[in-house]
Design goal:
It contains four helices and five strands, in the order βββαβαβαα. The chain is globular. It has about 140 residues and is α+β, with helices and mostly antiparallel strands. The strands form two sheets. It has a three-stranded antiparallel sheet, with no helix packed on it. The protein has helices at about 40-65, 80-85, 110-125, 125-130; strands at about 10, 20, 25-30, 70-80, 95-105. The chain has two domains: about 1-40; about 40-130, K homology (KH) domain (GMP Synthetase, Chain A, domain 3, 2-Layer Sandwich). About 35% of the residues lie in helices and about 25% in strands. α1 (about 40-65) crosses α3 (about 110-125).
Length: about 140
């Protein structure tokens, strides 16, 4: 299967507000100390993980032919703030750990729910990017 390319271009012009036009949607990332017009980048990252798991869960349930009446994904992460503010740290700069808890509304046993969630997370691209190093290149325009 051919690779699929995703592209987002963001813009920051005033304060802490960052916007991006994604398809027909304007996304906003902001800081509480700025205009507070959106979630901050770290909160948005966690939402992306939860959203991806939810979406893949619906796909897996459809393929396995059972009704997924709903899913609530709670993501908590522990952040190392030292690197964020430019201080030296032996810990990773950014999140040190993630906890994902999914409340799965389906007629499945607890064991089946765990297997379903394992399969879902295994297929989630964002979850996979957190587990394995992904090449990221950066350069000025």
């Amino acid at each position: 299967m051919a690779d699929k390319i995703y592209h987002v271009r963001s813009s920051m012009t005033e304060g802490w507000k960052v916007t991006a036009q994604v398809r027909d949607h304007t996304l906003v990332i902001d800081q509480p100390s700025g205009g507070n017009e959106g979630a901050n980048p770290l909160e948005t990252f966690l939402f992306s993980l939860a959203g991806c798991i939810s979406t893949i869960a619906k796909m897996v349930a459809r393929e396995e032919k059972f009704e997924l009446r709903g899913i609530e994904v709670d993501v908590k992460a522990v952040l190392n703030p030292a690197g964020l503010v430019g201080k030296e740290s032996d810990d990773p700069i950014g999140f040190k750990s993630f906890e994902v808890v999914a409340d799965i509304d389906a007629d499945l046993s607890d064991e089946q729910k765990q297997q379903f969630l394992d399969k879902t997370c295994h297929r989630c691209p964002i979850h996979d990017n957190l587990l394995r190093a992904t090449l990221v290149e950066h350069r000025p325009a």
